[in-house]
Design goal:
Blueprint (H helix, E strand, L loop, with lengths): L5 E5 L3 H13 L6 E4 L2 H9 L13 E5 L8 H10 L8 E5 L4 H10 L3 E4 L4 H17 L8
Parallel strand pairs: 1-2, 1-3, 3-4, 4-5
Helix pairs in contact: 1-5
Length: 146
């Protein structure tokens, strides 16, 4: 039996976080969503007090990551996730306002699975999140490292 996937949302804008969660739920995805408004708290959750990531061993995670956080860059978080043996198989969806082609390329090179630019237009953003919800309903997250 596969373990349910926990969605980790790292998003400092409370309005965006609520919109993302509402549209994920609207798409019929009922997985647990654990939200963080800064990188420090998210990293502590993901990597544990010892920083090894062992705390996530065997957990199936899907990570929603904003790049523009108040305390660190999402690029640094992405790099550390993809370099960690316990977390590297977890899909990472980057959700950010940055549409710089170099930054997008860099995220894919570091191992992000999907890069979504948050439109400033709220309705377009809501539509993008609805699409993401549909993506969640069909995605198969690989089993976590034993």
């Amino acid at each position: 039996m596969t373990q349910p996937v926990t969605i980790i949302m790292i998003e400092d804008d409370e309005g965006h976080a609520r919109l993302i969660e509402r549209n994920i739920r609207r798409s019929g995805v009922n997985n647990e969503i654990v939200s963080f408004q800064n990188g420090t708290d998210a990293m502590m959750h993901l990597f544990g007090a010892d920083g090894s990531g062992l705390v996530q061993k065997g957990n199936a995670l899907l990570i929603l990551l904003d790049l523009n956080l108040p305390d660190m860059t999402g690029i640094d978080i992405l790099r550390q996730i993809k370099e960690n043996k316990y977390l590297k198989a977890s899909p990472v969806v980057v959700l950010t306002t940055t549409d710089d082609s170099q930054e997008i390329k860099r995220c894919y090179e570091l191992g992000c699975n999907v890069y979504i630019t948050k439109p400033v237009n709220y309705e377009n953003f809501a539509n993008a999140i609805r699409q993401l919800g549909l993506f969640f309903s069909v995605i198969q997250v690989p089993p976590a490292a034993p």
